[in-house]
Amino acid sequence: MNMPCERHNPRTSGVLLFLLLLTAVEFGCGNGSSGIGNDTPESNRQPSQWEKFDVAAVDEVGTSLPYATARPDAGGNIHIAYYNAVTPAGGNSYHQLNHLVWRPGSGVLSNTVVENTPAPSDVDGFDRCAQFDFALAPDDTPVFIYPVEEVVVPLAQIEADIMINAGGGLFSEYTGAIGFVERNPVYYDGHATSNMSVAVDSGGGIHIAYQFFTEGMDSANYRYPDLFYVCRSPESLDEALSPQAFGAIEEAVDGNTFSTYGVHNSVGYHCRLVLDAEERPVIVYAEHPESYYGTYALKIAARDDTGGWHHEIVETLEYGWKVGAISAAFYPDGALAIAYALKAPDPAPDNGHRLKHATNRSGEWVAEIVDEVTWCGDYCAIAVNSEGTPGIAYFDEQSHSDRPHRFLKYTEFDGLRWVRETVDEYEEAGRFNSLWFDAADVPLICSYSDVDHEIVVFRRMDEN
């Protein structure tokens, strides 16, 4: 077992690669390929009964959304983080990151404001915590990451760092990553914002994957964004680090750094970081190039036994097809399960958005279409139960004839095919989904109702 955030030396000898990831085979394109079942068309499951819990109302200001995310702890409590924009009567708007603890049957146990930032009057669309992620430490203490961004003067330097906020009833904020730019002595502090993901290991080490931009005003800008990674031990958070010290701990995972010339490959979109059984980081992400020479792809990077990053292409996409969302989880055997949404560049009535699944259980990557009956797949969340059965919660946006749906859907692999069902079609739920199985392997989904502006949880009732 590695110590928290132990930095491996990439020059250390060793040839044993990361056991989870085997030789990749690029499968299919935007239209997908056969998967872990067979080519038999999926059939809809008999309607299940889903119990709905209204957990928390969310105030909305303008177009702000809650970005709700849920994590269960070992004691059966559900930790839910969400963004809220609050405007007191006659006052300024406050941008809040909230932590709520909820237990099925008992209701809300606590609701704490983690971060409360007044919106500056001279910045339009200021959402400090509107993009965030959080994980639970071994003692179930929540650890949050979110960007801090404030434009002071046009074309001036932008503070765009990833902040770490950790604690129980009293939270403390630390700088987690700055996006160090080694080439520019003026604008050495880049943009480490937007796409980000966090996981905490058993020693309390905080692993963060994030998309990185530069803010220098020169021709090198087109080589970004890159995918970066940093691991912070809890003991180091109080240290006052110089920008150069951040540069020493922030690792380039994929992309073009300043010293690499060539194609603008634009990597790191929708990055999701998970830890394998040995607590090594695995990052799933998308590449959406901005030039004709790049590759549209779903990719993976994993820490290998040499201390470096092992890269694989999970699926090469047709030109212009983009990944719209990613979720990842492990099977009991250590293989990886990935759910992701694909979006066509110019969708036709019968060729729009779709939900896909990929896994390397067979020793090579196999990608398959899970649902393309409607335009769907956004806000996908995947989980695997103790028997190795994967389930995916996702958003059904509309029919191929442009009829609005806004449904929350759930699908489960029955050993032969993906069996789909509609969880909710009345509350416009289905965005910001989190999925997990409880101790009895019953699926629960945390989602957001756009009708009631409320965070809700659904629990399937036909399991008992």
Give structural notes.
- It is a single chain.
- With 464 residues, this protein is mostly beta strands.
- It has 1 helix and 28 strands.
- The strands form 7 sheets. Strands 1-28-27-26 form a 4-stranded antiparallel sheet, with no helix packed on it. The chain has a 4-stranded antiparallel sheet with strand order 2-3-4-5, with no helix packed on it. It has a 4-stranded antiparallel sheet with strand order 6-7-8-9, with no helix packed on it.
- The longest helix is centred in the middle third of the chain and has 7 residues, at 243-249.
- The two termini are 38 Å apart.
**Largest sheet, described in full?**
4 strands, antiparallel
Question: What portion of the residues fall into strands of 2 or more residues?
Answer: over 45%
- End-to-end C-alpha gap: 38 Å
Helix content bin: under 10%
Q: Would you tell me the overall average pLDDT? A: 80
Features of the shown structure:
464 residues, mainly beta, four-stranded antiparallel sheet, 1 helix, 28 strands
Summarize the structure.
The protein has 464 residues and is mostly beta strands. It contains 1 helix and 28 strands. Strand 2 (69-72) and strand 3 form a beta hairpin.
Sequence-ordered SSE layout with sheet pairings:
Blueprint (H helix, E strand, L loop, with lengths): L49 E8 L11 E4 L5 E9 L7 E10 L3 E12 L14 E4 L5 E9 L8 E8 L5 E6 L13 E10 L5 E8 L12 E7 L10 H7 L1 E4 L12 E9 L5 E7 L9 E7 L5 E8 L5 E9 L5 E8 L10 E6 L6 E6 L3 E10 L5 E9 L5 E10 L4 E7 L6 E7 L5 E7 L4 E7 L4
Antiparallel strand pairs: 1-28, 2-3, 3-4, 4-5, 6-7, 7-8, 8-9, 10-11, 11-12, 12-13, 14-15, 15-16, 16-17, 18-19, 19-20, 20-21, 22-23, 23-24, 24-25, 26-27, 27-28
